[in-house]
């Protein structure tokens, strides 16, 4: 009787997990070589509460009466460029002397900063369309440059101030990325007056540009007024094709115009036609996501592995952005695995903004290419863990450039970067590795040390805030795959979990209502009809991509895809 009872329990457990329908076989995981060289478990793990940090950052930076030592970080710009309305500016860095309401006519501020701040805030639930009497999402429409005829969202509102900072019609990524940011912001805050017209016009400009380029993206930038590729002293930026592809995919989701899908594919094919990596900043990762999504939904066969390797291994052509990639290793006593920046500059130079933003495309990507779940989960654990080192309260005084100033922003604003070695020649930092610092004092003569604290670097923290949550097991994160999967159907919650340990781990799950948990990696239920607090197991050194389904949802295999009884696709392979 005892044996029969044990057998019955085992059979019941099997039936609850595998179910009665064959839903396919386990997805074999594909490695990313540079991720494999990172530790499964960082020697020291500390995961910040990124949602809380994003909320605190928003309160600090959008405080018109900021009483801290740094003073208000925001001001009104009433020059009414491009659109007849008042907009706002944010300091790029603390006490940046190029900026403020009384400097350069109050016009020098950057959309890479403002848009990321709105996106980050929106992702953690802050309504930026109605905050302190301002609709900030409407106000950023002044970055949509009509006066110069480009008719895209740009980093500044006008050419007269643009060369004071990064890129204006001379550095392609600065011209393309604000449009990806704007599309993302408008998905988080839909229905703002005038936004759809801007989104439509941007899509049309990108279609025209891709048509003119016709597969040849060998340019430093593109003049969207003349519709002409340009070459200058800036290295050629073929990875702009990844940005074009991503924005046009978003436009296809929003407007349904098949031309946008056609040119998303065309731009992606131009990106893949490169002989080697042209990675710089963020546009290539957006291209990776686009390729993964199209492979799953459009039956394309784009080489996602090549694009991932190009991102992680970095650009190796001395004529391009040489050395830009994903950092691996230990600098002194600190692990810096997973950060993005220069692999070569001074032995390595990581940036917080660049380290956060690839999470935007890479985490949702695993819904469409679950064979990368383990690799992306492992990279995220290392990256998120190391990103704390940019904050002055999270790295010891001996490893930061200005420890005497570490409290001036209440730890709301990070250093811009983390260098393997100091490049300012400060005597006390000789032989010290790593060093938290920033480039602000190099931007213009007279910029103070405080400008090492970087508002633009901190502004996208809400991306981590929306994606990253700790679980009951140290080192196992719950990563929200829907948070930044903009303009797609997100019918059910989806989470990526990676277990870095050499043994099975049980992870808590708080269910809202009665739900089933289905893993699209192993093609099995890990829990059925649970309510409230429950748990499930993750095998050793493995990942799960869990889809949270209403209890009793029926799954079937249809044309190789797993589909619910409501005709929702939850797995593409």
Can you walk me through this structure?
The protein is α+β, with helices and mostly antiparallel strands. The chain is built from 18 helices and 24 strands. The strands form 8 sheets. The protein has a 6-stranded antiparallel sheet with strand order 16-17-18-21-19-20. A hairpin with a 4-residue loop joins strand 5 and strand 6. The radius of gyration is 24 Å and the shape is globular. The N terminus is likely disordered.
Number of helices: 18
Structural class: alpha+beta
Instruction: Write down how many β-strands occur, each being a DSSP E stretch of 2 or more residues.
Output: 24
Averaged pLDDT: 94
Biggest β-sheet strands, sense, barrel = 6 strands, antiparallel
Shape: globular
Low-confidence stretches: 1-19
Relative strand content:
15-25%
Q: Rg to the nearest angstrom?
A: 24 Å
The largest beta-sheet arranges its strands as 16-17-18-21-19-20
Helix content: 25-40%
Instruction: Quote the distance from N terminus to C terminus.
Output: 42 Å
Give a brief rundown of this model.
With 573 residues, the chain is of the alpha+beta class.
């Amino acid at each position: 009787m005892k044996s029969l009872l044990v057998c019955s329990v085992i059979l019941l457990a099997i039936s609850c997990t595998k179910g009665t329908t064959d839903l396919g076989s386990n997805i074999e995981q594909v490695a990313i070589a540079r991720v494999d060289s990172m530790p499964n478990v960082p020697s020291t793990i500390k995961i910040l509460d990124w949602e809380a940090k994003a909320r605190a950052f928003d309160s600090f930076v959008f405080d018109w009466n900021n009483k801290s030592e740094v003073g208000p970080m925001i001001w009104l710009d009433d020059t009414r460029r491009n659109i007849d309305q008042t907009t706002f500016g944010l300091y790029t860095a603390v006490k940046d002397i190029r900026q403020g309401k009384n400097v350069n006519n109050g016009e020098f501020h950057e959309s890479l900063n403002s848009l990321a701040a709105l996106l980050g805030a929106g992702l953690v639930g802050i309504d930026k369309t109605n905050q302190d009497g301002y609709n900030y999402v409407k106000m950023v429409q002044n970055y949509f440059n009509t006066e110069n005829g480009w008719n895209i969202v740009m980093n500044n509102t006008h050419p007269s101030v643009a060369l004071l900072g990064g890129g204006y019609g001379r550095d392609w990524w600065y011209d393309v990325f604000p449009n990806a940011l704007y599309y993302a912001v408008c998905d988080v805050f839909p229905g703002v007056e005038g936004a759809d017209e801007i989104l439509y016009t941007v899509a049309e400009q990108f279609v025209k540009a891709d048509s003119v380029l016709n597969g040849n993206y060998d340019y430093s930038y593109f003049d969207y007024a003349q519709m002409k590729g340009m070459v200058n002293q800036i290295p050629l930026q073929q990875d702009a094709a990844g940005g074009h592809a991503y924005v046009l995919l978003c436009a296809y989701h929003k407007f349904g115009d098949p031309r946008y899908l056609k040119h998303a594919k065309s731009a992606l094919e131009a990106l893949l036609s490169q002989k080697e990596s042209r990675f710089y900043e963020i546009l290539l990762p957006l291209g990776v996501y686009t390729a993964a999504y199209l492979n799953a939904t459009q039956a394309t066969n784009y080489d996602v592995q090549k694009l991932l390797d190009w991102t992680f291994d970095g650009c190796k052509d001395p004529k391009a952005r040489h050395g830009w990639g994903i950092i691996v290793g230990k600098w002194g006593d600190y692990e810096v695995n997973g950060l993005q920046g220069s692999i070569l500059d001074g032995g390595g130079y990581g940036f917080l903004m660049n380290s956060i933003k690839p999470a935007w495309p890479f985490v949702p990507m695993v819904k469409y290419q679950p064979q990368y779940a383990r690799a992306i989960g492992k990279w995220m654990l290392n990256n998120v863990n190391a990103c704390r080192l940019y904050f002055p309260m999270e790295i010891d005084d001996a490893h930061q450039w200005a420890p005497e100033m570490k409290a001036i922003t209440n730890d709301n604003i990070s250093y811009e970067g983390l260098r393997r070695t100091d490049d300012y020649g400060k005597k006390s930092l000789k032989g010290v590795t790593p060093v938290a610092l920033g480039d602000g004092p190099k931007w213009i003569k007279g910029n103070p040390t405080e400008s090492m604290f970087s508002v633009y670097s901190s502004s996208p923290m809400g991306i981590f805030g929306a994606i990253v949550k700790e679980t009951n097991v140290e080192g196992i994160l719950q990563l929200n795959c829907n948070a930044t999967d903009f303009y797609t159907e997100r019918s059910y919650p989806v989470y990526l979990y990676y277990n870095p340990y050499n043994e099975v781990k049980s992870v808590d799950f708080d269910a809202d209502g009665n739900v089933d948990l289905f893993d699209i990696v192993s093609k099995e239920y890990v829990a059925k009809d649970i309510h409230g607090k429950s748990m499930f197991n993750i095998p050793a050194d493995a990942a799960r991509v869990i889809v949270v389904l209403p209890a009793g949802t029926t799954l079937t295999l249809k044309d190789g895809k797993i589909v619910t009884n409501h005709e929702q696709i939850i797995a593409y392979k």
